[in-house]
Amino acid sequence: MASQDIIARSATTTPAPSVRNQEAVAKLIDTTKCIGCKACQVACSEWNELRDEVGHNHGTYDNPQDLTAESWTLMRFTEHETDAGNLEWLIRKDGCMHCAEPGCLAACPSPGAIIKHANGIVDFDQDHCIGCGYCITGCPFNIPRISQKDHKAYKCTLCSDRVAVGLEPACVKTCPTGAIVFGSKEDMKTHAAERIVDLKSRGFDNAGLYDPEGVGGTHVMYVLHHADTPKIYAGLPENPAISPLVGLWKGISKPLGLLAMGAAVLAGFFHYVRIGPNRTEEDEHPDVPDTSVHQVDPAVHTFDPRGEGRP
Amino acid sequence: MSNKTILRYTANQRTNHWLVAILFFMAGLSGLALFHPSIFWLTHLFGGGPWTRILHPFMGVLMFVLFLGLVFRFWRSNFFIDNDWKWLRRIDRVLVNDEETVPAVGKYNAGQKLLFWTLLLCMLGLLFTGLVIWRAYFSAYFGITTIRWAMLLHALAGFVLILSIIIHIYAGLWIKGSVDAMLHGWVSRAWAKKHHELWYREVTREQAPERPTTKKG
């Protein structure tokens, strides 16, 4: 895949190919333009050949109820009452955010099962996936899902196959209101800035771009009418970052742990070399009889438990 | 003909110990494979990454169950006595094979007892955190923060366990006669007296009960 250099690879400790400068891409989801038609969900299923189970109505418009291994994107609907008492219907297209610093990639133990392309797309290679679910543990956005059919992890690929040949992701192509747009990350930021100016002029004083710094920025960004409170959009995290627990688990502690184990083995070896084994001198108690003698004639009590000459 | 006349471990105890040891190596190597990328190749010992992921928890649970057998067999011998604390203060002499001034200990010395309780703690920790992160069956019942803590603690407990076993194995190689004791069961009187004198006195008294002895403890 020369058109999409892999610049980061899970469970790999040496640098990835990184001399070519490829432009970062981004998908911009404008929640203020979204009408909740779910065409993006359908387009995603179609392009990726996914057919999730037809679910049940759980009392909301969300269908399916949650992301699954076969539903990589999902409209999440929130009925939000503003301070002024107005009802706002907040609809957020959920899915992988394609973090610049992906928690899934940091957590994955299988070399090459999670890769990051030079254009920013974070992709799972199910062929290398071992199904441990560490990516779920590492993800700050609760996105990856393990399939119960094949025990592999799945999520949005940002249509890496389409992007590689110069097409936009399927959800972008299908969106009827232009709420989802795709291009270079810089262009998307510019586009978002224009949208935010427009929103502010219409009374959304807190309108803003969601491109969280804690994960190095994302290659899927949101325009939010209430960027000061992302939580109200079905729990979009305020300051997402790789959890310190995951950082500690996957960070410096493991090389140090390996080093300590190696050092313990070496310490043992050199203790043996310098101090030597601890042998028992069997003849240091000459009055301990040979057992065979003892058994030949039990009447002769040469056997003496105090044989060490103790007073 | 052997001068090894004291039975230190019965056949059942030895079998139990070595079953735990075998499972420790299997669970340990498969766990290490997922511990750090540099040793991911260990997954090949178990048939690849997915098989390692599938087998590791089962091997771990089996190891725990068998380890419980060792706990029930040996826990009474692992309570600390006064001499153990004195022994620990003399650890520097023990380490240089100079045992003249080292106090007599029972069936296990303080190092072995510490190992016993450390292993028990690690095994319990590994079991409970392991269940939490067992994605196929149990992870769905726990929140993400619990799972993250469990991941971290599982790695930590595994690390402490492996480190303890490295020490345990080395101690066996260093103190000649102890590997034999666990393989064949028997130790010599000299060995028992040198390394576990209080235990030696106990068992030799049992062996010759008919002898009127006036010796004090």
Automatic annotation (TrEMBL), chain A:
Its subcellular locations are: Cell membrane
Enumerate the spans annotated as 4Fe-4S ferredoxin-type domain. 25-53, 87-119, 120-149
The principal localisation class reads membrane
Which Pfam families does UniProt cross-reference here? Fer4_11, Form-deh_trans
Name the UniProt record assigns to this protein: Formate dehydrogenase iron-sulfur subunit
- In residue numbers, the region (Disordered) covers 280-311
Under InterPro entries, the record lists:
4Fe4S_Fe-S-bd, 4Fe4S_Fe_S_CS, FDH_Electron_Transfer_Unit, Formate_DH_bsu_Proteobacteria, Formate_DH_Fe-S_su, Formate_DH_TM
Write down the PANTHER family for this protein, in alphabetical order.
FORMATE DEHYDROGENASE, NITRATE-INDUCIBLE, IRON-SULFUR SUBUNIT
GO CC terms of this entry? cell envelope; membrane
A GO molecular-function descriptor: formate dehydrogenase (NAD+) activity
- Annotated cofactor note: Binds 4 [4Fe-4S] clusters per subunit.
Protein role:
The beta chain is an electron transfer unit containing 4 cysteine clusters involved in the formation of iron-sulfur centers.
Report the NCBIfam families cross-referenced here: FDH-beta
GO BP, one annotated term: formate oxidation
Q: Which UniProt keywords apply?
A: 4Fe-4S, Cell membrane, Electron transport, Iron, Iron-sulfur, Membrane, Metal-binding, Oxidoreductase, Repeat, Transmembrane, Transport
